[in-house]
Amino acid sequence: MSPSISLPMQSQRRSDAPMAAYQINPDRSTKAIRIKKICCIGAGYVGGPTSAVIASKNPDIQVTVVDYNRQRIEAWKTDDLPIYEPGLLEVVQAARDGNSPKQTPNLFFSTDVDRCIAEAELILLSVNTPTKSLGRGAGHASELFHLESAVRKISAASESDKIIVEKSTVPCRAADTLRDVLAATAKPGLHFEILSNPEFLAEGTAISNLLNPDRILIGSLQTPRGLEAAQALANVYGAWIDSDRIITINLYSSELAKLAANALLAQRISSVNALSAMCESVGADIDEVSYAVGLDKRIGSRMLKASVGFGGSCFRKDILSLAYIAESLHLFEVADYWRSIVHINEYQKNRFTRRMVRCLYNSLTGKTLAVFGFAYKKDTRDTRETAAITVVDDVLTEGANVRIYDPLVKETQIRHELKSTTARLDCVEKQLTVCTSAYEASTGADAVIILTEWDEFSNRGEPVRRDSGHGRKTDERAERKVDWTRVAELMRRPMFVFDGRNIVDAGALEELGFRVACIGKA
Ligand SMILES: NC(=O)C1=CN([C@@H]2O[C@H](COP(=O)(O)OP(=O)(O)OC[C@H]3O[C@@H](n4cnc5c(N)ncnc54)[C@H](O)[C@@H]3O)[C@@H](O)[C@H]2O)C=CC1
Ligand SMILES: O=C(O)[C@H]1O[C@H](OP(=O)(O)OP(=O)(O)OC[C@H]2O[C@@H](n3ccc(=O)[nH]c3=O)[C@H](O)[C@@H]2O)[C@H](O)[C@@H](O)[C@@H]1O
């Protein structure tokens, strides 16, 4: 084992410390680089919240988030932030506006990428790494174009040494690519140290994940300069995270660990969704099965909720990237294994629509479906890869009139997502209505389809109080749960509910006259 990393002694570990093996050795004699200015390239779901939390916890460090998307940067300067995350606005305001006595403004947003790169000692790369859409590996490999162009910018604008941190999710050995570009293009004599520091936040809980992460992973070359850079980054996180949660490992292990984490999380969902298909045939209940297996501490209860299928910008692309890497290493069986997670996810979405069509007498022509929720999960307005795109596209093609209501997602975004996916643009134009309430969506509908697990759609539990992200409630309507009695009054008979998230109490809805189909329940 390298002398620069150490296994924490049992006695040094807190009782709730993670089980991970490696951590920064507090006795290490590496010299610490003091970071005064950080530049984060990419003002998206990762760059914005991560920079805001780093700035709020490090009042002495100036953090500037840069992006070439001027509209996004301008929105970050207002209170109408470009992304919705519970608690985000408060953290941004504290650091950006300096409205607490302890903090002067130290969080900035800018399109002046060159200047901010030149001034920073540490640069966070938080640009998008989508699935390639062109050429070799299209539909499978990660597109590193944005990462490479950001690094070329760094190279051109730098007059001093930099620590460059991969926060974006990247294929293994992406750091070598970045190093190669820098070696060929940067001014002679400059040194660039590349670190891998993958982000594990989940949307909807980003701020709590960032404030209290399970672990911070820092991958570096095991050279004196690599370790020195890792220590400098660890010090930034050390402002609010205990050292036993800051883990330093080999650069390439860190890159792979991020892909592995997402693949394993998605694998749990696909496993449960595969079981849900069996439950529907054998008369078992998937919620009971998940509960029963999750009580085994080796399995654990999280990420075992059956659904219409996972969405979001990352699971699919990261699994496909992992499979592509395996295939390029001639590990074809390994590639097939990972890809099967995505196949089951597609199967689950199609299975959901097939069941719906079957229940609605094998024809959706002329029927009206009320869709509750379009975001890929609750507490976000992100719709990337949401299962709702596939389901809505399918039912539009089957001839249904679709009335969508989502508490946060705007009509323009819903139409944009559907238009960029469907082969039947005319269906989107003629058969789709975006509504401003669940009641408007339900009017005259034959069925309600729940596609996002927003609390307000559930007929269980307490009334909803949602933080708007603006420090006040969104509006009166959003504070109440959907009144299913009123929904029933508005619908055509017979009335169906297809619950793609298993959030309703089916028995209570059946008492109101609904016929209810849940995932993984006969
Ligand atoms: N969205 C999420 O919850 C998570 C995402 N990730 C990873 O983080 C990375 C970023 O993801 P998101 O923040 O969701 O992406 P995003 O698409 O929301 O944001 C990326 C931003 O980078 C900007 N950008 C791209 N190239 C640029 C360049 N050369 N110069 C300046 N700006 C540039 C884009 O304009 C965009 O605003 C991805 O690799 C993703 O896999 C990791 C963990 C969680
Ligand atoms: O790399 C990323 O982008 C991130 O991807 C996921 O985060 P995210 O996609 O934001 O949200 P999740 O809570 O993981 O949910 C993903 C999808 O799976 C679905 N899901 C989740 C959990 C579950 O039990 N069942 C289920 O169907 C959700 O509804 C959602 O559509 C991971 O949880 C993060 O750790 C990771 O950083």
What does this structure look like?
With 522 residues, the protein is an alpha/beta fold. It is built from 19 helices and 16 strands. It has helices at 47-57, 70-76, 88-97, 113-119, 145-157, 174-185, 206-211, 224-238, 251-282, 286-294, 315-328, 332-359, 387-397, 411-421, 425-431, 438-442, 476-479, 484-490, 506-511; strands at residues 5-6, 23-24, 37-41, 62-66, 107-110, 122-125, 162-166, 192-196, 216-220, 246-250, 368-372, 401-405, 432-434, 447-450, 495-499, 514-518. The strands form four sheets. It has a six-stranded parallel sheet with strand order 5-4-3-6-7-8, with helices on both faces. It has a six-stranded parallel sheet with strand order 13-12-11-14-15-16. Helix 13 (387-397) links the parallel strand 11 and strand 12. Residues 1-21 and 470-478 have low confidence and may be disordered. Uridine-5'-diphosphate-glucuronic acid binds next to helix 9.
Q: Going across the major beta sheet, what is the strand order?
A: 5-4-3-6-7-8
How far apart the termini lie comes to 53 Å
Number of helices, where a helix is a run of at least 4 consecutive DSSP H or I residues: 19
Give the % helix. 40-55%
- Poorly predicted runs of 5 or more residues: 1-21, 470-478
Nearest-integer average pLDDT: 92
For the largest beta-sheet, the strand count, sense and barrel status come to: 6 strands, parallel
What small-molecule ligands were found?
1,4-dihydronicotinamide adenine dinucleotide, uridine-5'-diphosphate-glucuronic acid
- Tell me the total number of β-strands: 16
What fraction strand? 5-15%
Q: Which radius of gyration do the C-alpha atoms yield? A: 24 Å
Mass-distribution shape: globular
Helix-and-strand structural type: alpha/beta
